[in-house]
Amino acid sequence: MDWSLVSVGQQGAEYLHSAFEGGLSLAQEVLRSVDISEGACVSLVPGGARDDLVDDFARGGLGPTGVAVAGLATVVEERQTVGGGVFIAENAMAKPSDPTSPEDPAARFSFGEEVYEYSRAVEASVGRLEALIQHADAGYSMNAVLSTSDVARELPEHLGSIDSERLRRLAAGAVMLVARAYDGEGFVLWQR
To answer: 80, 59, 91, 94: which is closest to 185 by C-alpha?
Structure first.
């Protein structure tokens, strides 16, 4: 394994909370719906990352970015295999009016002017999730949610839009939260 999970406790929860405060509407709704203190926070970092850098979520120098992306895809795919659900990543740079391509790695939906990319458990593979994460990643930030809400079956394909009730239900069903960290070289994860 080229990556590792490191417990980051309350510091990780505070970082994740801050990242979600600055996120799009789904992240904001998650903070209203989920008590982060009722789960566990870990960092996903490249293997061999120095211990003194793991608690500094805003600083890089841990290792190559691709290692963490592959690790996150593996963790999400394993969780989806057991519990199902839909993995949803903010695409903070996209707009609903942006052109799409058949090569785009994930289905998309919009909420107002925001775009989210997603992969349901039945469609998930490590390779597909890796491509989704890389495509949605704005480089400086990315928030994502694994939700087991029944809304996952109702998500529109091809950039259809969802309403605030569906957004609220996706947030309430969150079982994993992900925030980009370490200058893009890792992630902070929360799970219940």
So the answer is: 59
Which pLDDT belongs to residue 158?
Answer: 65
The first and second tokens of residue 91, run together, are 């695409």
Sheet holding 40-46, edge to edge: 3-7, 40-46, 186-191, 174-181, 143-147, 86-90, 114-120, 107-111, 160-161
Residue pair 152/85 in contact by the 8 Å Cβ criterion: yes
In whole angstroms, what is the distance from residue 174 CA to residue 172 CA? 6
Res 1: pLDDT: 56
Which pLDDT tens digit goes with each residue over 5-29?
999 999 999 999 999 999 999 999 9
| Phi–psi pair at 109, nearest 5 degrees | -140, 165
3-state DSSP assignment of residue 131: helix
Residue 125 has pLDDT above 90, yes or no: no
Q: Is the pTM for the entire model greater than 0.70? A: yes
Angle at CA 16, nearest 5°, toward 145 and 12? 125
